[in-house]
Write a structure and sequence with these properties.
By secondary structure, this protein is of the alpha/beta class. It is built from 11 helices and 8 strands. The structure holds erythose-4-phosphate.
């Protein structure tokens, strides 16, 4: 499963990229607004740090305007993924852009029917928002459980299911169990995946016992060299 980080905070992205576990980045207009920076500058900086797909969302809603914005965003870097809304104009743009070799992430997907349309439009990724479905009393993850098997029925569909609006490590595990290709995680959720109290407790014990030996591996010499 690929892990993307869902943020426009370049400091966070740099730190997480250092783990070597980051496959891509997603942004949206809300996250760009939160960064307080110019969108094109932020996307360019992210693309420099992360070689994988970096989603940059158009703000236009009408086909010709989406295409104009996409042209600007595509010029930033080769790994820019154009993010378009799941609307008739968005999907028309998706088809045109992917036919022209661009990567496209179709966002704001809330039903299996919508996901199927995105796949038919040649989307590189379709983003079902599980957390926002949970918020209105649906079980968001059930949508992933619908979309993944549908896509599996049609091996010619190359669209990857990108689980978005992720709120907890449990969402990530459930999405992985269901076979989703990608999950985009807020930085705190991605960091949360590392944590387990027994790891911390076990490490503290090992370090305490090691300190008692007085040894230092980096300065140690094997018996043959002594
Ligand atoms: C990612 O592409 C989406 O924009 C994002 O995951 C939405 O998350 P939210 O519902 O927490 O805003």
């Amino acid at each position: 499963m690929k892990f993307f980080v869902d943020t426009a905070d370049t400091k966070e992205i740099r730190a997480l990229a250092e783990t070597g576990l980051l496959d891509g980045v997603t942004t949206n207009p809300t996250l760009i607004a939160k960064s307080g920076r110019n969108m094109l500058d932020v996307i360019a900086e992210i693309c420099d740090v992360v070689p994988g797909p970096v989603s940059a969302e158009v703000a236009a809603t009408e086909f010709a305007a989406i295409m104009r914005e996409a042209a600007v965003l595509r010029r930033i870097a080769r790994n820019v993924t154009i993010k378009v809304p799941l609307t008739p104009d968005g999907l028309r743009a998706c088809k045109a852009l992917t036919s022209d070799g661009a990567m496209v992430n179709v966002t704001l997907c809330f039903s299996a029917a919508q996901a199927l349309l995105a796949a038919k439009a040649g989307a590189t990724f379709v983003s079902p928002f599980v957390g926002r479905l949970d918020d209105i009393g649906h079980i968001g993850m059930e949508l992933i459980g619908e979309i993944v098997p549908i896509f599996r029925n049609y091996p010619n569909l190359k669209t990857e299911v990108l689980v978005a609006s992720v709120r907890s490590p449990l969402h990530v595990i459930d999405a992985a169990r269901l076979g989703a290709h990608v999950a985009t995680l807020p930085p705190a959720v991605l960091r949360g995946l590392f944590n387990h109290p027994l790891t911390e407790k076990g490490l503290a014990q090992f370090l305490a016992d090691w300190a008692k030996t007085g040894q230092h591996i980096a300065e140690a010499q094997p018996a043959a060299a002594r």
